[in-house]
Amino acid sequence: xxxxxxxxxxxxxxxxxxxxxxxxxxxxxxxxxxxxxxxxxxxxxxxxxxxxxxxxxxxxxxxxxxxxxxxxxxxxxxxxxxxxxxxxxxxxxxxxxxxxxxxxxxxxxxxxxxxxxxxxxxxxxxxxxxxxxxxxxxxxxxxxxxxxxxxxxxxxxxxxxxxxxxxxxxxxxxxxxxxxxxxxxxxxxx
Length: 190
Hints:
The protein is α+β, with helices and mostly antiparallel strands. The protein has helices spanning 22-28, 41-47, 50-65, 93-100, 153-165, 172-183, and strands at residues 72-79, 85-90, 104-105, 116-120, 125-133, 139-147. Strand 1 and strand 2 form a beta hairpin.
């Protein structure tokens, strides 16, 4: 399946809505309209820079793999450099879904400026990190952490060393490389 994420060693080009496979267009339909003033989903997607397009497609793919994409009601922000993730408005069931899921934990997931959060369990690198801020409506964010603080002592050490102390924030290329290696069963290196 073509995820729309290009091979890192080839030329990465700006995509247009019509370049996306139908299943991705359907998954994004109704969720991008209004983003940065765009009147349609295709206009919003076409206006994204390459890093934001690639980040959005990585988040979409990972959230679909975890059966969580349907919880996204409207995307309010996309970032692909200095972090890889989205801001979004969610359907009310997202919080209870994450709370009940064995694939996520609250352990270490909250930030001082958020109301709560959830970390993806089960892999050492390129893990989803959900955060929310209570309000009307609640604001949700999901981004990839390069290393998991909850998977193992080794991945927790890497998270502490590189992301917490070192302030490294991954870009979409780093996340893509790790996910590609994980799909092939290859351990990732620093």
